[in-house]
Design brief:
This protein has about 280 residues and is mainly beta. About 10% of the residues lie in helices and about 50% in strands. It contains three helices and 21 strands. The mean pLDDT is about 95.
């Protein structure tokens, strides 16, 4: 039972498994699959989606999502979880993956405002590009500089976290960090423009774009820049994107910008948490 307190926690979590739109060779909105939202008082909910396919262009075998919010029996903290799972994804027979899981869990303290956060459970199983297997290494502790302790400030304001993200940007735009097997060593302009670290602009926007991906291992017919894959005659794939502001975390398993025979944008496996405590 939740103890008597003048403080109130407002839970917030939302998830979806799949969605987007295609503009060529057909124009079609992709209905959002297995969407869920957590009530502000907490609780638990789950949703499922069966097999889905669109004109032979894209498909998945099944998907499910979960959200939950409750009070910890151990220490009275407010805990929130958000999970999205998509199985047997196939985009144009180029991007295939057996399973994408995005999972976020937060714990807000009884005193203070800034939560502990973990992404344990997030993973890519048997990701392939054009039949070439890739291994995705993740930093599941990117937003947990304090370990088991509650952070002294929001993740958005934490110097260690910001330094880690700045290093991500540097590596994405550094020719020396391109894998040895990749013959084209030049960093394209669109990469440099998207991944330029600017502290002043960061504060103006009030949000940090980063990734849980530390490294993508394995050769494939394309190019890799950090968490970004560029595949000729297909488009761009952004893995494990994470949006962080002062009070929320939004994780996107895979976001695709298709740009050849098929044009469109697709997201696979999105989980988000934004909880607030008053006063």
């Amino acid at each position: 039972m939740e103890p008597n307190t003048t403080r109130v926690h407002y839970y917030h979590a939302d998830v979806n498994a799949f969605g987007g739109h295609i503009t060529t060779p057909i124009q079609r909105e992709i209905p959002v699959q297995a969407p869920l939202s957590l009530p502000p008082v907490g609780g638990y909910a789950t949703a499922r989606a069966g097999a889905f396919q669109l004109e032979g262009l894209l498909s998945f075998a099944s998907a499910y999502t979960q959200v939950g919010g409750s009070v910890s029996e151990k220490n009275g903290a407010w805990t929130t979880s958000a999970t999205s799972v998509v199985e047997k994804v196939n985009i144009h027979d180029v991007f295939t993956v057996d399973r994408i899981v995005t999972q976020i869990a937060t714990e807000h303290p009884r005193e203070g405002y800034d939560p502990k956060v973990t992404f344990v459970g997030t993973r890519f199983e048997n990701l392939q590009i054009g039949g070439y297997a890739l291994e995705v290494s993740l930093d599941l502790n990117l937003c947990s500089p304090q370990g088991d302790r509650y952070p002294a400030t929001s993740c958005f304001d934490d110097k260690r976290f910001l330094a880690s993200v700045a290093e991500q940007y540097r590596r994405v735009s550094d020719e020396k960090c391109i894998p040895a097997w990749q013959k084209d060593r030049e960093i394209p302009n669109w990469v440099r423009e998207r991944y330029t670290w600017d502290n002043a602009n960061l504060q103006r926007k009030g949000v940090v774009l980063c990734s849980l991906v530390k490294e993508v291992r394995g050769e494939f017919p394309g190019k890799v820049y950090g968490n970004v894959l560029e595949v000729p005659e297909f488009g761009k794939i952004f893995l494990g994107e994470l949006l962080v502001d002062h009070n929320s975390f939004r994780l996107i398993g895979a976001r695709l910008e298709l740009g050849c025979f098929t044009h469109g944008k697709i997201s696979v496996g999105t989980s988000g948490i934004e909880g607030r405590t008053e006063p």
